[in-house]
Amino acid sequence: MNCDISSMKEMTTVSGGVLDGVSATTLWTLHNRASEAKRSDGVIRDPWAVTLFDTISYDYRKFGKPNQSHGLRAVAFDAAAKAYLTSHPKASVVALAEGLQTSLWRLDRAGVADQLTWYSIDLPPVMALREKLLPIDERIVPLAQSALDRSWMDRVDDSHGVFITAEGLLMYLEPADALGLIRDCAARFPGGQMMFDSIPHWFSERTVKGLKLSDRYLAPPMPFGLSADEGVALAGRIPGVRAARDVAMPPGRGVFRLAASPAVDRVGFVRRNRPSITLLEF
């Protein structure tokens, strides 16, 4: 069931103030993604993100000036999901702590979402906002719960493969919880894949001490840091993870294009201290 943005019911503006703490960071990522999508030279095309951004009333500027980071991250996640769905068209996609991500509709436009089942998982306030703003779709199984509540695993049909995304999630967890979630996913869904992004240790330490994105917004602590090479090493560290690879960030504009250069990434100091995206195979 495809749902074009033109079919969205006309609605009044809703307040984003219903979200707080870590849940409110989905408005930060939405700000960045939608701002990119609105640009003629933006790194992502995301009509639903623009619609959500324009519909949710919120003081987005307190997150600081928008940048390309979350748009590029979304493009990287889309590419890996598309590759998996191309070979597993009836797979289940599990979007842990999905927030206000709109990945399903981007994959739909890419032609790989016709037969999948999409498990959308997040805390009740976030899921209520998604239900209010995004279209009903027969492919979506909404689950209003924490990603750490493993009962979601019992709901997932793994008969045609499973692709799990933890986009913007693990860094907000305690290290034992983050690694435990990976371990349990590997044990439960052999043959599946899991993709997550990480922040470097130095950035994690800054957020724990208190990182202000602006003079009006203090970022929540992000206690779990992981370097690119530590992500790859999970294949030898966690039972059931048979392979792991570092996923390169797509090139953006300006400094983001430079940062994506393989030559730059071969510099040890840069590689150890940059954000990373890891794709695990179970």
From TrEMBL:
Gene3D superfamilies referenced in this protein's UniProt entry, alphabetically? Vaccinia Virus protein VP39
Which Gene Ontology biological process is one annotated for this entry?
Answer: methylation
Which Pfam families does the annotation name? LCM
Which intervals of the chain form a coiled coil? none
Keywords from UniProt, A to Z, are: Methyltransferase, Transferase
Single Gene Ontology MF annotation:
methyltransferase activity
PANTHER family referenced in this protein's UniProt entry, alphabetically: S-ADENOSYL-L-METHIONINE-DEPENDENT METHYLTRANSFERASE YKTD-RELATED, S-ADENOSYL-L-METHIONINE-DEPENDENT METHYLTRANSFERASES SUPERFAMILY PROTEIN
Protein name per its UniProtKB record: O-methyltransferase involved in polyketide biosynthesis
